[in-house]
Every structure is written in structure tokens, then in C-alpha cells.
Amino acid sequence: TIDKGSQSGIKVNQAVITNEGLVGLVFEVGFNWAKIQTILDTSTSVGCRIVRTGDISITEGDISLINSGLLKLLYISKQFTISEGDIIETSGLGEIYPSGIVIGRIKEIKISQNANTQFATIVPSVNFSNIYEVLVIEGTNGKR
User: Fold this and answer.
1) CA separation for the pair 123, 100 (Å, rounded)
2) DSSP assignment, residue 6?
3) 29 burial class (0-12, 13-18, 19+ CB within 10 angstroms)?
């Protein structure tokens, strides 16, 4: 929960960041408060881009990773040449997150059970246990 709300122009579905990277989005707003849903939440997905290769994918909160503070990178074709340590940032696709906001780095890559795709775990760039200030982005559709 943050101490700014509709009185300050905060609206539902605005992106929230820190100087480290993407935190999440505003999901509920009151007059002088707003609640933020982090990217670790299992109901959150973010269109993303692997910086080194330009490949597009999706990050998602995962129930098995949430206690470790990690995310899952999904829908990675075997043709993608991802590597541990690759930086993941927002793609700008969709209407909430502008492009170019750092999400995190790939920690581990695994092959899916059907062996046609791979997935990865991501270490977020934001330290979620130590957030004191955030910035709420007003624009949508990739505009800041």
C-alpha cells in the first residue's frame, strides 16, 4: 500500500517502478492510498523482452517460486538462445507497462515436459523486502 491515491492522480492499472526496476501495477485506489500488485503475484503477467536477443516472452508470478522471490519466464521457443544472466525488461506490449523497464535476470533455464519449449526462472531486479519509495507511471501503451 502506498500513501498516494486518487487525490494525487493515481489510477488502477498504472505501472509502478523503483530505481531498480519494475514493481508491478496499481490494482486498487482510494482517496489518499493505493494498493500495488507486485510482479511476484501469481495473477500477474508481464510482456517482456530478452535484451541481448530481442526475443519476446512473458513473465509470470508462480506459486512454487513466490516464497523464493522469483518469477517464471514462459513461452520460450527452443530457437531462442537465452543464457543465464540475460537481462529481461518490459516489452511495451499491452496497455500497462512501458517498454524498457528492467524486470530482472535469468537465473536458470529448464526444458518443459513436452520438450518443445523451455522456461526460465528470473531473479527480479527489485528487492521486494526493502521498498521505501516507488514511482507510479501515468501513461499507458508504452508512453511515460
Assistant:
1) 17
2) G
3) buried
If you write DSSP's letter for every residue of 59-82 in order, what string do you get?
EE--TTTGGGT-EEEEEEETT---
- DSSP letter at 119 equals E
N residues, the chain: 144
d(CA 129, CA 111): 30
Question: Which grid cell sits at 18?
Answer: 523503483
Q: Which residues contact 46 (CB under 8 A, 6 or more apart)?
A: 22, 39, 58, 59, 60, 90, 94, 97, 103
> What are the backbone dihedrals phi and psi of residue 110, each rounded to the nearest 5 degrees, phi first?
-135, 150
Per-residue confidence at 138, pLDDT binned at 50, 70, 90?
confident
pLDDT digits (tens, 9 = 90+) for 27-69: 999 999 999 999 999 999 999 999 999 999 999 999 999 999 9
- Per-residue cell: 89: 525488461
Cα Rg of the chain (Å, integer): 15
Q: How far is CA 143 from the centre of its chain?
A: 17
- Whole-structure pTM value: 0.90
